[in-house]
Amino acid sequence: MAGILVYSDKTALALELLSAAAAIAVREGLEIKAVSINNAAQAGELAARGAETYQISAPGLLVADTAAVAFCLKQAVDKLGADTVLLSSDRRGKELAGRLAQMLDAGCLTDVKGLEAAGGRTGFVRNALGGATVAVQVLKGPRRVLAVSPGAFSPQEPKAGGSIKELEVETKPSGIKLVETREKAADTVDIASARTLVVVGQGLEDKADLPAAEKLAAVLGGEVACSKPVATDKKWLPEERVIGLSGKICKPDLALILGVSGQVQFTVGIREAKTIVSINSDPNAYMNQMADYVLVADLKDALPDLVRALE
Ligand SMILES: Cc1cc2nc3c(=O)[nH]c(=O)nc-3n(C[C@H](O)[C@H](O)[C@H](O)COP(=O)(O)OP(=O)(O)OC[C@H]3O[C@@H](n4cnc5c(N)ncnc54)[C@H](O)[C@@H]3O)c2cc1C
């Protein structure tokens, strides 16, 4: 029977892929198998979620070497009879998706965030035209490689029936030499799971006003996020806090948006918020059209007033 093969080097994402695989399997009657490479703990987690898990032991293989990982996965796909591969649509997963699809001569979609019926086939929901629209796309070839956006599916719940087997594959010497491993100086905040976000845009003209936005977030029990230029151009906040096409997709209960114009590359990351409040000095800002509440005001006045009123 044709099947789905699931792989991510990150266990949390692999568990989400199992849910995505289950949703496809229900529609198409496919078997689900999972692969873990050099990660016994992950194999255990996958099996505990009911997955028929294949453990690949490849000494010396770097998971960052997507060419080497794709070489292993291609063999796993052939040996296990899979015709659909699910990968995570994070940076490494997207690179892997392209490489593996090329090796398998398969169709490939990245940033998949949902499934929909499409003329008797499974359609994959993704942003299109730079986030200006949402498209439902179908891969018609015999093989598919799909990279699924982190957070698009909930992690698979624990389930009986899983198993772990060894899978032998050939490995090639890596062209990449690991020189050093360093902890990423990461922001520990996950804006994608915050229920309240105070989002800073370029309308916050002075960095000295940033603490007021942080205070507002603290008063509301939320987190600070930002538009892309605030992180990449001004470097006021880390890139982990960017909302949008090149940042995170967030679905908070409340998004208080300060001085953001509302270009589509930003709004694609916040349009599923339950309540949006936009504060902008321009009454015609695009952001205001999407907002539930709009305050036309200069942030220089509005921000301190809001902090005073709420604390
Ligand atoms: C391929 C691609 C990917 C991209 N990905 C992203 C992404 O993931 N996330 C993202 O955010 N952007 C992204 N961008 C950039 C995006 O197109 C916009 O340029 C960006 O979102 C604009 O940021 P902003 O709204 O903060 O700034 P601006 O567009 O400069 O808007 C500032 C707003 O603040 C208002 N304002 C100014 N002064 C005040 C004041 N004193 N008080 C109140 N309001 C004031 C203005 O009226 C304006 O509406 C991407 C672009 C490309 C091409």
CATH architecture of the largest domain: 3-Layer(aba) Sandwich
Distance between the termini: 61 Å
Number of beta-strand segments: 15
* Proportion of residues in β-strands: 25-35%
Which structural category do the helix and sheet elements fall into?
alpha/beta
CATH H-level superfamily title of the largest domain: HUPs
Q: List all distinct small molecules, including ions and cofactors, that are bound in this structure.
A: flavin-adenine dinucleotide
Please count the helical segments. 9
- Are there runs of 5+ residues with pLDDT below 50, and where? none
- Helix proportion: 25-40%
Task: Report the principal-axis shape.
Answer: elongated
Q: Determine the CATH topology of the largest domain.
A: Rossmann fold
Query: What is the CATH class name of the largest domain?
Result: Alpha Beta
Number of domains: 2
Q: Report Rg.
A: 22 Å
Could you tell me the mean pLDDT? 94
- H/E topology pattern: EHEHEHEHEEEEEEEHEHEHEHEH
Summarize the main sheet.
Answer: 7 strands, parallel
Describe the structure.
The protein has helices at 11-28, 40-48, 66-80, 91-104, 210-219, 228-232, 264-267, 286-290, 299-310; strands spanning 3-7, 31-37, 52-56, 82-88, 107-112, 114-118, 121-128, 133-137, 144-148, 163-166, 196-200, 223-226, 254-258, 275-280, 293-296. The radius of gyration is 22 Å and the shape is elongated. It has a 7-stranded parallel beta sheet, with helices on both faces. It has a 5-stranded parallel beta sheet with strand order 12-11-13-14-15. The model has no long low-confidence stretch (mean pLDDT 94). It folds into 2 domains: 3-166, Rossmann fold, CATH 3.40.50; 191-310, Rossmann fold (3-Layer(aba) Sandwich). It contains 9 helices and 15 strands. The longest helix is centred in the first third of the chain and has 18 residues, at 11-28. Helix 3 packs across helix 4 (91-104) and helix 5 (210-219) packs parallel to helix 9 (299-310). It has 311 residues and is α/β, with parallel strands linked by helices. It binds flavin-adenine dinucleotide (FAD). Flavin-adenine dinucleotide (FAD) binds next to helix 6, helix 7 and helix 9.
